[in-house]
């Protein structure tokens, strides 16, 4: 089931972002000079454990090895959790399918647990194991496992610790502090592997630089994860309304089942409500600090909203499989028909995902490009025909240039560093390369393509950032005016594939049109 849900061709949206870092860590000559790759690592545990794989196999194979390892961890952890709650662990596949459906259809802040390989896909596997142990009141084991989760992803593990601790207090199942001390101390020590690299990112960095970087991260690059109220009413209605429906269904289901919920499942529902409370606290903080963006960014950067995207579907899934399993064991008709309906829902959702995958043979990260096939062909040509040390100006929204062409980039929207100094430099480069002014309402205007900047500006950017080539993607037709944007620059054309043109910035040329 996990393979069906997450088996898109590599690279996934975030795999090109993270796995290139692994390869650069193991081989610093790979894309030497790339701002993103040469910035400090925040998720050092997964880099340390998996970077060596990139020296033996391709990035695509590395992605599949990581996926299979994380999916196995998730599957075993989820099966253990379901076995603590439902009458039979055979219900685990149905529960997992419901969990995938809930996280994909009713998310608020864009969190997921199944997809491409990265640190958090491993971290959530340990969270599942920890919840299973907590359901059995083995709190020391739960805290140790959450320490492991934090070692891979500090925020996934850290917020899970907070939510599970609150859940234990709410249900009265939390063990005395003295009894849990070994697990808390051991888990805390394990968590340092994930927490310390993040804390050390900005040691010695001036406070004003950190403050600027926080605002870049929260309000410019990741408001959909970190500052949802700043996204506006339309986005809030689209994302918030769906999650609100899930929360309403969760509340109704909890109330209807209130007399039949065993203690372990009650702890899981409290875990979800605690995650929702954390999310609500984040919204209140954003409102309270609305006119204080420096303070707001310093607090909101810790991802207050994303655990609820996973915790509430976990609880809903467990409530449903418990109802189904208990009802079938008691030979009741309604749960049996309910199981048929739930299976049909999951088959429809997973089948739809398979159909979408069959329509396009390209990985999600490549699909960000206007013409994925031409993009891949161009990148392969660049890998085979340009110097390895050459730096490139690339399209604003490209995800996979380093993955496909193995050449360093000046800047892209996707690849934002994690430390403050590099983040500020990333923003400066991004605006310097792609911003072309401000609109009538003060909104930024971005170039439709690199070629539209013209030969003179491209050569200036090449001189400033040491770029030898500019790879331009032809812009789409202006929907409002029907007038095509300028599609070429007066520079020597090195190669052209479909909508992609590679320009040489090293020498002047004559107009191409």
From TrEMBL:
Keywords: Membrane, Transmembrane, Transmembrane helix. It comes from the Bacteria. Residues 373-433 form the DUF6798 domain. The chain crosses the membrane at residues 81-100, 112-131, 143-167, 179-200, 268-290, 302-322, 334-351. Pfam families: DUF6798. InterPro entries: DUF6798 (IPR046477). This is DUF6798 domain-containing protein.
């Amino acid at each position: 089931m996990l393979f069906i849900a997450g088996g898109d061709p590599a690279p996934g949206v975030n795999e090109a972002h993270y796995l290139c870092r692994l390869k650069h860590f193991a081989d610093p000559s790979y894309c030497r000079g790339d701002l993103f790759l040469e910035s400090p690592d925040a998720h050092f545990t997964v880099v340390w454990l998996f970077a060596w794989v990139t020296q033996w196999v391709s990035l695509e194979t590395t992605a599949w090895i990581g996926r299979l390892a994380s999916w196995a961890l998730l599957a075993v952890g989820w099966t253990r959790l379901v076995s603590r709650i439902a009458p039979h662990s055979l219900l685990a596949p149905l529960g997992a399918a419901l969990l995938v459906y809930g996280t994909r259809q009713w998310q608020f802040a864009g969190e997921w647990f199944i997809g491409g390989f990265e640190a958090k896909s491993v971290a959530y596997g340990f969270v599942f194991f920890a919840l299973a142990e907590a359901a059995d009141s083995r709190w020391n084991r739960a805290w140790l496992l959450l320490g492991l989760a934090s070692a891979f992803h500090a925020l996934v593990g850290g917020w899970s610790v907070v939510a599970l601790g609150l859940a234990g207090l709410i249900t009265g199942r939390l063990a005395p502090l003295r009894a849990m001390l070994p697990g808390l101390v051991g888990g805390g020590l394990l968590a340092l592997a994930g927490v310390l690299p993040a804390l050390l990112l900005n040691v010695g960095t001036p406070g004003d630089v950190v403050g600027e970087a926080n605002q870049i991260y929260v309000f410019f690059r990741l408001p959909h994860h970190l500052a949802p109220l700043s996204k506006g009413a339309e986005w809030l209605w689209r994302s918030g309304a769906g999650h609100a429906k899930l929360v309403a269904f969760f509340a109704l289901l909890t109330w209807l089942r209130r007399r039949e919920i065993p203690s372990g499942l009650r702890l899981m529902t409290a875990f979800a409500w605690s995650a929702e409370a954390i999310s609500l606290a984040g919204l209140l903080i954003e409102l309270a600090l609305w006119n204080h963006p420096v303070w707001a960014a310093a607090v909101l950067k810790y991802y207050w909203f994303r655990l609820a995207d996973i915790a509430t579907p976990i609880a809903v899934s467990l409530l449903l499989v418990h109802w189904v399993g208990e009802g079938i064991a008691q030979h009741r008709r309604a749960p049996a028909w309910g199981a048929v309906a739930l299976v049909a829902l999951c088959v429809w959702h997973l089948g739809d995902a398979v159909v979408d995958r069959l329509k396009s043979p390209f990985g999600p990260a490549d699909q960000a490009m206007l013409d994925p096939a031409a993009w891949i062909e161009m990148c392969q040509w660049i890998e085979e025909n340009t110097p390895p040390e050459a730096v490139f100006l690339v399209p604003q929204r490209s995800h996979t240039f380093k993955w496909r062409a193995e050449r360093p980039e000046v800047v892209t929207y996707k690849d934002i560093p994690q430390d403050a100094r590099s983040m500020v430099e990333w923003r400066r480069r991004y605006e310097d390369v792609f911003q072309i002014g401000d609109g009538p309402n003060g909104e930024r205007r971005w170039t439709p393509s690199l070629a539209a900047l013209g030969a003179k500006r491209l050569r200036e950017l090449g001189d400033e950032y040491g770029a030898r080539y500019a790879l331009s993607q032809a812009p789409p037709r202006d929907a409002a005016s029907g007038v095509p944007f300028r599609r070429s620059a007066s520079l020597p054309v090195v190669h052209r594939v479909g909508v992609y043109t590679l320009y040489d910035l090293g020498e002047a040329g004559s107009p191409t049109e």
